[in-house]
Amino acid sequence: MAATCEWKPCEETGQDAFIVKFSNGHVKNAEQLDFQLLKHADGVNPRKKNRRIVVAESDRLPYVGNNFGSGSLQCNNLCRYFVGVLDKRTMQMKVHNAQLFNMLPVIPGESAVDENTKQAETYREKVDALIEAFGTTKQKRALSSRRLNQVGNDTLQQAVALAARNIIDQKGVETLRNEVVETEAQTDTALFLPPCNPEADKPEDVYPFDQLLSPNEFEALKDVGAKMAALTAEDLQKMRAENSPQIVLRHLESLPNEEAARDRQSRCIWYLSFLIKASLQRRLSFKFGSEDGCPRIIINKVLKDFTVESFHSGCLRNTVSSSMRMKLAAHCLALLLHMSDQTADLTLLHRDMGISDVKMLEVAKAMGLTLCRQSAYSREEAGTHDEHRMVSLVLPLVHYERRMERRKRKRMN
What is the pTM of this model? Predict the structure, then answer.
């Protein structure tokens, strides 16, 4: 028996046919399923107006299928499907545009997550999921231990944050900021300042002399100090021609006549010149100063206290770093205070040591010294006067506030 087929475009039919396929089996009785068709509310947007969701509810599980997103069938985009509906009474068939839907079960209790808001799993999370599913006992134990540690770290961070909040509420932000600045200043200066006793009753006890030179070290300087005390005017002129430190020459020119004071001063002058000479070196060896008759105990002291040990090509090197230069400057300044009745010429010292005026000023302020300016007569340029920065130790020590802001660098054209 022949049947006639009537073709009508999909625009004339007014609706499409929807063919569903269940992913976990076949439906024996479709009448027991309650189907619902949902379409997108935006009928103007060409990308959204054709979106459809088919819901099939049964006594056991609901099924959901859609024609968009990762769960949809890609065949809808590659080709067009048609379905014919046969009217048995008139034996005429109408052909409709069809769409295929893959129905997936939805387990009750699980909330559907929007694909746009769902965060992609990290590589670490993916590896952890694989270990949970297929990992060995050892790997699972390590994963559990790592997660427990992570929980412990989170708990610790919460406790620290709570404690910090309580401290901030009690003391205030400004007080804590001042305490941090003061602590940082003390930590920085403690690295290069000589031993200090700010509670001392006498100025000479603030930076004790025996902490700069122990009795054994001071005794070892007897011979070299005697040579220093025996220098003549011609020897001093020769040292000036050889560009010896100016501050050393100034003290040699004003050696006291009293024997004990002259001996003590000459030993200090020799040790001061040795420290200045060491500060101008990049590296020191164990033979440094031996040609000048330096005692071994003094060489060992300088190598231990004023150099940084490092390995290079399998050899041990004693390097004079920038921080060690600051430490040498502080010890030289403390030694000068004992040599000059608790006063010192800061300008001559920074010139002889090759340290900038700003850094030398930082050392003097860190030591709590009083600053002043004084006009000095220049021997090299007769008839000229130079303004020198002088420091003195006056009790109580001066406390200089540390500047919080940094100086702006000049913009280079």
Answer: 0.55
